[in-house]
Amino acid sequence: MIPYGRQHISQQDIDAVVEVLKSDFLTQGPAVPAFEQRLCDLTTAQYTIAVNSATSALHIACLALGVGPGSRVWTSPVSFVASANCARYCGASVDFVDVEPDTGNMAIDQLRQKLEQARTSDTLPQVVIPVHLAGASCDMQQIHYLANEFGFKVIEDASHAVGASYQDEPVGCCRYSDITVFSFHPVKIITTAEGGAALTNSSELADKMRLLRSHGISRDENLMTEPSHGAWYYQQLQLGLNYRMTDIQAALGFSQSQRLLPIIKQRQVLADRYQTLLQNLTVGLPEPDTSVISSWHLYIIRLDDKTRRKAVFDGLRAAGIGVNVHYIPIHTQPYYQQLGFDWGDFPQAEDFYERIISLPMFPELSSEQQQFIADKLKELLA
Ligand SMILES: *Cc1c(COP(=O)(O)O)cnc(C)c1O
């Protein structure tokens, strides 16, 4: 089976991990700060807090922005469930903003409309979490304008978009957001096995997230409520979590990050080749806006005739092609249905869901494999 995504592990990655295993620290050593600095260098963000998953990063990002019971958080229904669950962990309520039919990203006109309605009913959100589907940035400048106008904070869920850019700046620079979140799960652009990070330009948010990452414990005397008792002393200042990344993971991430540019270039080559191979088929192909350079985490095609999606999907799988669907709209999950959402609530997200197939996309996918995938697809659509 050709998988839809697959990590690439080099000898250098293996050596980097082995080196940590032989060192003094498996966790809380020098590899995590080195990886954090590397992510700051790659994105120009001032602060990076590396954690054990993007889900954890989304959770502490929400907490740092003051999300709690009574808060409202909006995100995209076309995402992995973690984009919404982070608000629920904080006791907040979640709502969704419908998406653009071609990109599956949060639609700016829908966001504006929903904000105007929410203003009249005094139910504006505290935080909006746009998701850069497949690695193509949302229109962050527009979202930023709306954030200023309506007074909400912005967390970019850039789990797919490590190495991508928007308006000639790296995703993660946080020009138009308070916090940006990356995932380093093996199917994503670079991996730490499990892992994620929260990036920000705010020292205050960075301090809050660092505390939350490790039990709410600090050794900083300036934060203590009484003089230090000695070198062993620490204080727990609030209820934090254990969301730390290990040094083993960070060393893998650092080593992987050294190949980020060639990985993005190769994914672009694969996307261009799909574009050429598939252009005459009855499917919509992803075409990111000119302001966007996608990381091409996913290559999502949209069938003109959605009644054929299941047959085409099954046919591709039967041919050994590990296609997938990203995503089942979050609001249709039983957990969210129990909270009052239902089919029909976000028609563009649902229509998108019913048409899409994610084709295999990972750096080692060969041109022969792409040709095979294109031929099969053509045959199944005929
Ligand atoms: C993968 C993913 C996450 C969660 O990432 P983990 O690192 O597995 O916790 C969150 N949001 C989106 C959009 C994702 O694709």
TrEMBL record:
Keywords: Aminotransferase, Pyridoxal phosphate, Transferase. It is an enzyme of class 2 (transferase). Its EC number is 2.6.1.92. Transmembrane segments: none annotated. InterPro entries: DegT/StrS_aminotransferase, PseC. Pfam families: DegT_DnrJ_EryC1. One of its GO terms (molecular function) is transaminase activity. Belongs to the DegT/DnrJ/EryC1 family. This is UDP-4-amino-4, 6-dideoxy-N-acetyl-beta-L-altrosamine transaminase. The gene is pseC.
